[in-house]
Amino acid sequence: MRKNAILFILIILLPVGFAAISTAPTVSVIQDVQYLPSEFTLQTFERNMNVTAYVTPDFVNETLTRFLYSAKESIYIEIYQFNSPAILSLINDIKNSNPSIDIKLMLSEHVVDGSSENIYTAWNLTQLGIPVRWTSDIFDFSHQKFIIIDNITTIVQAGNWAKLSVPLNDWIYQKYQNMYWKNYKANREFNIAMTDTEVTGYYRDVFDNDWSIGTEYNETIDGTGTVLEWGSLSFSYYPRVFNYSTEFTGDMKVTPIVSPDTSLEGILWCISSAKYTLDIEIPYTYNGTTAITQIVDAIIAAKERGVNVRIIADGTKEQNEELAPELAKHGIQMAWMDTRFFASIHNKAIIVDGQMILISSINWSETSVTANREAGVIIEHEGVAQWYQAVFDYDWGMASNEVSDGVNIGWEPVVPSSTDTINVSVYAHLVNGSENLDDVILSVKIDDGLWENHSILENIYLSGEVNYENYFYEISPQADGTNITVKAYIEVAGLWNSSMDTVIHVADISEEPVTPGVHIDSPSDVTYEYGDTGNSITWNPTSTNETDSYTITMNGTEVESGDWDGTAITIDVDGLSLGTYVYSLTVNDTLGNEASDTVNVFVVDTTNPTINSPNDITYVRGETGNSITWSPSDEFPSSYVIQRGGVEVDAGSWDGTSISWSVDGLEAGTYQFTLIVVDTSGNSNTDSVIVTVNPTQMDQLILYGVIAIGALVVVIIGVFSQKRK
Predict the structure, then answer these.
(1) CA distance linking residue 603 with residue 103, whole number of Å
(2) Is the pLDDT of residue 208 over 90?
């Protein structure tokens, strides 16, 4: 049966920030289907596997594109919202280039903004023969986001395939800095790709279950929806801080979680596992409901047993503003995501002790935890967790804190060992940064010792907002088990602002042993000017076993392969046309272990066209055969514009040949003609020619005659005036 109006009250508990509103048609669903919340149980896989970490907006486009293009046999998608024109085009390309590939798509029939873009996506893909089903209405809402590739790799995302989750990006050049990415406004979201058949098998079981109870898209009943368009785009977040994805290979514990089956159990397990730190990014917390009260109580309990808790949330949500003061009473700091850099916080992540990370689609509402279809994963691996920890710390450094006096503290490492120097940062962006500060003091107390005050006004460095507004102090290594309490004070115009007390726990957490198998480094991306030479990529893979072979692909097509003898592998990337190229290296050992890395090569054109400077032209009015001929040149010509006196008189495509313009037929006078040529990369050049048109002899005689007649008239008028006197 169809959900009644209660459904639409419940779905407002889910995240917002999607496309323009319209009404989606309804379809019939399979009747008499009941879902048992115990269908899937909490199961931990201890596996030696590959994991790729990436975040939105920094590197989501490139990473997602690489994984989708890697598919050879199948792509199964179960996602809440799919309105990205770029990803829709990508799926079309994949299907057209490999018609035999098995692609299945499950979408939510209803989205919180009421748009019909999902319907258009369903219609578009069914035209290619791709089957599309609506996720069953036995769930209050289908808010999951996971993708299965070749039954080997599973991608779990906090974000949808939406415009704010997979943003456009482009280049931007900044004065005094290197080339940086330009990203359009997007959410902050954590995503992860896991390559392992057993782990993927769990998610495949979820997909198959949901597919079996879903409802086929029906064009007659559902319609064709609203065509996907980017619409208005706003620009933010440069440079891209985490402008890469990172692959981790080794032994790790992986625990899939899904709503309504295991989400509450999984979230409570993460929180109760925390010994030292608990860092959370979540859009909102609907405290007061049964499940969410348990979560909030677990967070408070963690703080009371000595865990340092930090929460980044959406400061525009009323429920967060109500909860923040209550948490502050327990010494728990809730800060607001800086939306100058992000469209919104759409993340749903928990990081525990820098060792465990939860990535999911699960919001903290009763329906999301206990009644929706949601998907997530808990990874226990120090490298993976600390990669996302760095992202959290970056976001924390820009977050605003209204409960204290607007001063946040951060530190690294998040759980220092007895050999680590501890770098404590004081973020002053909410109290005028580096401007007009009288003093910045960090108070430090070791265990139960005395407070020591350290003025650090001179210890300043650039913040994530690229301003000088962060201050630091280094604490020397302390013994295992030491608790260091820090508190920051900032004086502005005689008034003091302070942070909350923060406890840093020193603990010698045992490190994971080096994992046997194949490992590979991640060389930097390569950018070079078209036509330059000497450009190459060098990887330095290693293996604890006997090495076997390697393969290099460019944009998914093999370009080189051979035996790998354990030494560095280099490939020449000269001679490419303008564009972006994705080079991937895969190395293998004789035991079947493999590792991969991807490097982007950007071939750019920043050279302006050349243009000659024809001589100025002078001719007598009425003469013909007068023209200007320019001879501009460029490797990639595009268009031209001719102006006369700043007003366009001609424009068109430029094929690299000469451009001529007749200047006949002008009246006597002086004219400036300007040619502007532009290449395909937007580089341009200009040249101006002065054309002087002189009057003919007849023009001059007529002019003299007019002057003479004028003078005679003046004389006659003067004589006539004298006679009247």
Answers:
(1) 33
(2) yes
- Secondary structure E strands in 38-101: 45-56, 74-79
Handedness of CA 147, 148, 153, 156 (dihedral sign): positive
CATH number, domain of 527, equals 2.60.40
Q: Check residue 541 and report its DSSP letter.
A: -
* CB neighbour list of residue 284: distance below 8 Å, 6 or more residues apart: 313, 314, 317, 319, 320, 363, 364, 365
Secondary structure class of 182 (helix, strand, coil)? strand
- Measured distance CA(113)–CA(93) in Å, rounded: 29
Residues 409 and 392 in one domain: no
| 703 and 687 in a common domain | no
Average pLDDT score, the chain: 86
Pick from 161-165, 240-244, 579-583: least confident: 240-244
Is the pLDDT assigned to residue 488 strictly greater than 60?
A: yes
Question: What pLDDT shows up at residue 400?
Answer: 81
> Cα–Cα distance between 491 and 471 in angstroms, integer?
13
> For residue 12, is it within any domain?
no
How many separate domains does the chain show? 5
- CA-closest candidate to residue 30, choices 210, 213, 208, 207: 213
Range of the domain at 709: 698-725
Q: Are residues 359 and 501 in the same domain?
A: no
Question: What average pLDDT does the segment 628-632 reach?
Answer: 96
Measure CA 408 to chain center.
25
Residue in the structure block whose two tokens are 């327990």: 330
Same domain, 201 and 56: yes
Residue 187: CA count within 13 A, CB half-sphere: 27
Q: Pick the closest to residue 564 from 594, 534, 537, 536 (CA basis).
A: 594
The residue written with tokens 């730190």 in the block is 277
Q: What does the pLDDT look like over 394-407, one tens digit per residue?
A: 999 888 876 656 78
d(CA 560, CA 538): 14
pLDDT, mean of residues 7-35: 35
Cα–Cα distance between 318 and 322 in angstroms, integer?
6
How far apart, in whole angstroms, are the C-alpha atoms of residue 380 and residue 394?
22
- Residue 6 in domain: no
How far is the C-alpha of 333 from the C-alpha of 502, rounded, in Å?
10
* CB-count exposure of residue 675 (10 Å: 0-12, 13-18, 19+): buried
| pLDDT tens track for 423-459 | 999 998 888 777 789 999 999 999 999 999 999 999 9
Asked whether residue 76 carries a pLDDT value surpassing 90, the answer given is yes
| Structure confidence at residue 444 (pLDDT) | 97
Residue at token pair 């939306």: 339
CA atoms of 553 and 531, how far apart (whole Å): 22
The torsion angles phi and psi of 469, rounded to 5 degrees, stand at -150, 10
pLDDT over threshold 70, residue 26: no
Q: What is the CATH number of the domain that holds 627?
A: 2.60.40.10
Pseudo-torsion of CA 20, 26, 27, 32, nearest 10°? 120
pLDDT for residue 183: 56
Of the candidates 440, 439, 452, 509, which has an alpha carbon nearest to the alpha carbon of residue 484?
A: 452
Model confidence at 238: pLDDT above 70: no
